[in-house]
Amino acid sequence: MTGSLTLLTLAEARNGLARKAFSARELTESYIVAVEAARPLNAFITETPAQALAMAEASDQRLARGEARPLDGIPIAVKDLYCTKGVLTTAASHILNGFRPPYESTVTEKLWQAGAIMLGKANLDEFAMGSSSTTSYYGPVENPWRRPGDNRPLVPGGSSGGSAAAVAARAALAATGTDTGGSIRQPASFCGIVGLKPTYGRCSRWGVVAYASSLDHPGPMTRTVRDAAIMLCGMAGHDPKDSTSAPLPVPDYEIALTGDIRGLRIGIPREYRVDDMPGEIEALWQQGSDWLREAGAEPIEISLPHTKYALPTYYIIAPAEASSNLARYDGVRFGLRVDGASLDEMYELTRAAGFGAEVRRRVLIGTYVLSAGYYDAYYLKAQRVRTLIARDFAEAFEKVDCILAPIAPSAAFAIGEKTDDPIAMYLNDVFTVPANLAGLPAISVPAGLSADGLPLGLQIIGRAFDEEGVLRVAEVLESAAQFRHLPGFVARGR
Amino acid sequence: MALDKAAVAHIAALARIKLSEAELEPLAGELSQILTWVEQLNEVDTTEVAPMASVAASGLPMREDRVTDGDCRTAILGNAPGGAARGFFVVPKVVE
Lengths: 494, 96
Fold this sequence. Notes:
The structure holds two protein chains of two kinds. Chain A has helices at residues 10-19, 24-37, 49-65, 106-113, 161-168, 185-191, 225-235, 279-294, 310-325, 343-354, 357-370, 375-396, 422-426, 433-438, 467-481, and strands at residues 44-47, 75-79, 117-122, 174-179, 194-197, 217-222, 265-269, 298-302, 402-406, 442-449, 455-462. In chain A, helix 7 runs antiparallel to helix 15. Chain A has one domain: Amidase signature (AS) enzymes (Alpha-Beta Complex), CATH 3.90.1300.10. Chain A is built from 15 helices and eleven strands. In chain A, strand 10 and strand 11 form a beta hairpin. The longest helix of chain A has 22 residues, at 375-396. Chain B is 34% helix and 4% strand. The mean pLDDT of chain B is 92. Classes of the chains: A alpha/beta, B mainly alpha. At the A-B interface, helix 9, helix 10, helix 11 and helix 12 of A face helix 1 and helix 2 of B.
């Protein structure tokens, strides 16, 4: 029985725990073995097996007393951008060397209150800046998928690449991610799992290491749409400690999965048909549209005219906010310090040693676009275009209920590809960035395999705070796609 | 916008990041390339378009003015990379 525990979905594991088919301790022990077996992927920066077992013990006691909480006994990975009290939190950066937060992020606190179990802290791109999970100070993450007949390790996507790799390799039942420009959805697509970026304000950002505050979205990464709905219930909710957190009640997202999308109008944005889009991506997108039509929805072509400006807008706003957010890393109060003759020299040497190349590049760009004489030309201009991008969506949602789009212009690429040219790497986010700029909920659902045997996701974007609609359509897409493939590397549990 | 080495050195000083002379030239090239690419936004007519700083619909919420946290000096000083002395962070001498 226990040999297959790590192959269960979250919903199946929850039901098995409730039936007492196995204990939280047995499930957790299986996953601890799987986390160790998955070490070649470098998906975790820190493993927390002792903490996991203690949490499992508490879950088993509640289960025995008939007081089970919604996520009792569910072992998950936490992106190492979420502060965890007393547990090393690095943001995959050298500058947070040795940092053990004296507090817990709101989202992880909610998950532990709901009974979830922490397996460890998942690897990522440094400060969540990247699309490949190769810029971590702790080394690149490997995708558990490989092209058949080709041994080159592939990237898991980024920045939540450790989370995605762990969930795909069956080394975690679910994971938390964060999505600033696609960092949940693109790695979900590259690893063949589900990734949900909720509406801005749905999940608290408090205690999540900030990259670009107006664009950062915490969210779940899971193996199925139902699992994403269950995780979101445990993560969402108003938090007075985050001033942008929405004071709205959290619905039961699992109930929203009715399978009935008859009469829904699905927008197909013509501007997402970009030049040189690979034929297989375009074909999958058409297939997705056909599946939804067969389920009774009505695909309608729509226009989002400012789509092509979303990426350059993002690459002004995100670095600007990052340069401001990352000003706190000064070597004084926590993390790395490199001594200097003066306080200023200490700052400069600490930040030079602590930040990797991509982080440094974005801090410098951000500093420049906010500096005197350039603020209006770059930063304010980008904020104005952001208004137009959000307006495009608002107008589209007068005609349609949700939008179907690709996730990324390609499947996973090899580690080391696309690293010479920052802009080539940035283009990965062309289909995901617009939903961040507009703050809209969006999900990636595994929908098929590329010609070279790698997973490809499709994206559903919804109206603000309509995660229920997004999940409902996503589940229909998932049922139609019947994606049952496993990656080449599956961690052996026990 | 093409940045030269002097401009990069100036930005790096503003950002408090020490760069070696050898790093300036390649960074000038990379940053110039990114800036040139984002300048395509100039094609967009944004006259009379208000800038958007956040999608959060409401203004900043107010709360009652009372202490909700604190009394955790030891926990906070516990991460001090240069150590703590008498309840303070230790830094290089600032005033001569």
